[in-house]
Amino acid sequence: xxxxxxxxxxxxxxxxxxxxxxxxxxxxxxxxxxxxxxxxxxxxxxxxxxxxxxxxxxxxxxxxxxxxxxxxxxxxxxxxxxxxxxxxxxxxxxxxxxxxxxxxxxxxxxxxxxxxxxxxxxxxxxxxxxxxxxxxxxxxxxxxxxxxxxxxxxxxxxxxxxxxxxxxxxxxxxxxxxxxxxxxxxxxxxxxxxxxxxxxxxxxxxxxxxxxxxxxxxxxxxxxxxxxxxxxxxxxxxxxxxxxxxxxxxxxxxxxxxxxxxxxxxxxxxxxxxxxxxxxxxxx
Length: 284
What we know:
Blueprint: H1 9-27, H2 34-44, H3 50-66, H4 83-93, H5 97-108, H6 152-157, H7 160-180, H8 184-188, E1 191-192, H9 193-196, E2 205-208, E3 214-221, H10 234-242, E4 247-253, E5 260-265
Parallel strand pairs: 3-4
Antiparallel strand pairs: 1-2, 2-3, 4-5
Helix pairs in contact: 1-2, 1-4, 1-5
């Protein structure tokens, strides 16, 4: 069987341009026909199979994930990308003013409380990691060419309306869970700590196990995909380590369209890769 030739710069730019069209439409809340766009792309790239185009789309998602950017829903990141693809994504997609405007809009627009049901159907398994595990003081393994980080996830993390809507969603879920288990009195005691006591507690929601033990829940909400990175404070990490027996992190994703979440329990150092983001500094 003849091995496919390496992708040319022209081919890579063509698939990145098609991906950009899908992503901008998705971020803007506009409908688009993924199959139709890919069929048109295949006609331009006559020597590329449908599966090779699918893999390249997933590589583009991985570049965007590693640049802290949203990516197209349905194209799960595939990390073995090459430097030429990073350069094309930065030039054709990340260099686009239209993409920048759409990504900022998606990260910053207000959110309202979700009307979706809050039963156990929203719980999914955490995504499989495609990154090597390392401590906060270790450098992660480098790709051939790393994409430059953007601030879209950081902008979304500062979206107060989105954060509050996610926390209230978890309060409703916990009340529903306890009511369904026959613990109405415990359900009445579920407290939105971030609203009643502020942000310094190290968690957002106080809930309970069926036997009355406290359940401390930190909520991280995104409108983007399940694999999107999130920000966590030293205080939250320390709280998870000191109170591992009661600590939970609920990661809500795809919040505007179809809210779902995965849950991590215990010491978060055991579950997360951690990347130093910044330091607060002063003169000594």
